[in-house]
Design brief:
This protein is mainly β. The chain contains no helices and 27 strands.
């Protein structure tokens, strides 16, 4: 949220809901000095949040009769006037993308704990998203920016590997999902899901229109992927990684851009959230 004022201030909160019988907020941790642009589960019970004041915060979530959130560590990743737009993790590493276009990789012996910058590269405009590849490895980091470019960077040597041309995405690259067997998916503001194949520099295999800007691609670990499609709602994709198909569409329940979502641990429920209307919806998956 951006508050009115001469300078303008952002604020946000990290909330915990129980959804066994409807939705009920059970815990909230307010971050008064900044908004939260991204949230990731590092492992069960530990979350990381990317903030508009150039930092990543780590929170311990406890359940039971008295659910609570506890701030356990804060890692500065940029100057306070730079937004941390996304955060992602691989064993021993964290990658953060920034509104300045910079993508920075940190080595971490323990999470949460001290972080040492070990690799860095930059886009010409905002760096929206990053992912480590291969999945579960910190061998290289892939990033997408508002400049419409997909970049690959070697972490160990801190050197560039390859980049796509601007013509290969019709707008900013906003989502990246590495899959098995040298398959890579990307999402863009241009409403296309792109499937890339091949070792090394990938080759575009196909595009699939999803009816909205593809902001997030979230796998469930069972072969299905939730696509958050901004003004187009959300989609659930399934099928072979090289030939995905839409198997379910979520268009009702949101009056604004769907920017976030995730799966329940058992894959039976999916949650989606939208921007201006501040809605969180939980859906039962029947596919």
């Amino acid at each position: 949220m951006l508050e009115d004022g001469a300078a303008g201030t952002r604020n946000g909160s990290l909330d915990v809901y129980a959804c066994s019988d409807g939705l009920q907020k059970v815990a909230s941790a307010v971050s008064a000095d900044s908004s939260i642009l991204d949230v990731r589960f590092v492992r069960p019970g530990l979350l990381a949040s990317a903030h508009s004041t150039g930092k990543v915060c780590f929170w311990r979530a406890t359940g039971g009769a008295a659910p609570a959130l506890e701030l356990v560590h804060t890692t500065p990743v940029a100057d306070p006037d730079v937004l941390a737009l996304s955060v992602t993790f691989a064993p021993g590493h964290m990658a953060v993308t920034l509104s300045s276009g910079v993508v920075r990789v940190y080595a971490m012996e323990a999470v949460p704990g001290p972080a040492t910058a070990v690799a860095e590269h930059a886009h010409e405009l905002e760096a929206w998203t990053a992912a480590f590849a291969p999945a579960g490895s910190a061998e290289r980091v892939l990033s997408g920016g508002d400049d419409g470019v997909l970049l690959a960077h070697a972490v160990a040597t801190d050197t560039p590997l390859w980049r796509t041309g601007r013509a290969q995405h019709g707008a900013g690259v906003t989502a990246i999902l590495p899959l098995a067997d040298n398959v890579l998916w990307t999402g863009s503001y241009d409403e296309q899901l792109r499937v890339w194949t091949g070792a090394g520099r990938p080759v575009l295999a196909q595009s699939l229109g999803l009816g909205g800007g593809v902001w997030r691609l979230v796998p469930d670990g069972r072969g299905r992927v939730l696509a958050c499609c901004m003004h187009g709602g959300a989609r659930i994709l399934a099928g072979p990684p090289t030939e995905p198909a839409v198997v379910a569409t979520i268009v009702d329940g949101h009056e604004s851009m769907v920017y976030g979502g995730d799966w329940a641990a058992d894959g039976a429920l999916v949650a989606t959230c939208s921007f201006y209307d501040r809605k969180l919806n939980v859906w039962r998956v029947v596919y």
